[in-house]
Write a structure and sequence with these properties.
about 110 residues
Length: about 110
């Protein structure tokens, strides 16, 4: 999971003004954020918010940062990545256990 925050109010305004002119489709967006080593599969954002969020499939955090840089998003935002060990989406529920917990070593 990547959490993005803008460098400044100006970079937020600049990003959203560019997006306002962008007529690409959601399918176009998905292709644009698919790379050899990672893929952004979802995003959540609001125009007036300080943060926005992206769900990535990647082997390393570095792969995500490289993809963000390749698309120029690093010119607008700082990004922190966090590995999510559990994912539940009500659009695709299964009978699998809800939370997969790693076993810890016994003392």
């Amino acid at each position: 999971m990547a959490i993005h925050t803008f460098h400044s109010e100006k970079t937020r305004e600049d990003l959203w003004s560019g997006i306002a002119e962008d007529t690409s489709t959601q399918k176009d967006w998905a292709k644009h954020w698919t790379f050899d080593k990672c893929k952004c599969i979802a995003t959540w954002s609001g125009q007036d918010d300080d943060f926005f969020f992206c769900h990535w499939l990647a082997d390393t955090e570095e792969d995500i940062h490289n993809a963000i840089k390749e698309n120029g998003l690093d010119q607008f935002v700082f990004t922190a990545c966090y590995e999510a060990h559990n994912y539940i989406d009500t659009a695709c529920l299964s009978d699998e256990r809800a939370f997969q917990i790693k076993k810890t070593a016994e003392a």
